[in-house]
Amino acid sequence: MKRSFYLVAVILVLSALMLSACGGGAPAADSGKERGATPAEYAGKKNPVAGSADAAAAGKALYDVNCASCHGEKGAGDGPAGASLSPKPYNLAKAVAETDEAYIYYRIAEGGMMDPYKSSMPAWKDILSEDEIWQVITHIQTFK
Ligand code: HEC
User: Is any atom of ligand 1 closer than 6 Å to the C-beta of 79?
Assistant: First the structure.
C-alpha cells in the first residue's frame, strides 16, 4: 500500500517535470495551436471590406501603431515587445489560414484574457471601432 503510493508520487513528479520541459504547453511558433470555439455573438461574422486596397491601407496604419510591437511588422510573431511574452504572439498569416474571419475578429475584439489563451493579447473592442477592426483584418489577410 505504502509502496504504491510512493510510485504514484514519483510518476506525478516525473510527468510534471516533463510538462514543464515542454514549456508548460505554450504553443510553439510553428506547431498547431489550441483554440476554443468562437462565441455565438461573433460566429459567422464576415469581413465587409475583404480585399479592398483602401481598407488594407487604413488597416496597415492601425496595425503598425497598435499591433506590430508584439506581432511584428509582417505578423510573423517577432515584434520586440512579444519576445518576452508567454505565450508568445502567434504567426498571423498562419492564424488566418488555420481559422476564419469570425474567429480573428473575436480574438482582436476580446483579446487573450480567457481560456484557453490566457495571454497578454489586449482586447480592442473599446479602442477600435468595428470598421477599424475589419480594416486591420483586411491588412492581416495580405500577410504571407
Ligand atoms: C502586448 C502584445 C500584443 C499586442 C499589442 C497585440 N497582440 Fe495579438 N496576441 C498577442 C499574443 C501574446 C497572442 C498569442 C496568444 C493568444 O492567442 O492570445 C496574440 C494573439 C492574437 C490573435 C489570435 C491568433 C491565433 O493564432 O489564434 C490575433 C488575431 C491577434 N493577436 C491580433 C492582434 C491585432 C490585430 C492587434 C492590434 C490591434 C494585436 N493582436 C495586438 C499579443 C499582442
Answer: no
Q: Residue 43: which pLDDT band, with cuts at 50, 70 and 90?
A: very high
Could you tell me what percentage of the chain is helix, strand and coil, using 3-state DSSP and rounding each to the nearest 5? 50, 0, 50
pTM for the whole thing?
0.83
Closest-lying ligand 1 atom to the alpha carbon of residue 91: 26
Task: Decide whether any atom of ligand 1 lies within 6 Å of the 107 Cβ.
Answer: yes
- Kindly report which listed range (11-20, 34-43, 79-88, 91-100) carries the lowest average pLDDT score: 11-20
Nearest residue to 83 (alpha-carbon basis) of 114, 120, 110: 120
Sequence ranges of the domains in the chain = 81-144
- Cβ(124)–Cβ(112) below 8 Å: no
Contact in structure between 98 and 33 (CB atoms under 8 Å): yes
Is any atom of ligand 1 closer than 6 Å to the C-beta of 69? yes
| Distance in Å, CA 136 to ligand 1 centroid | 12
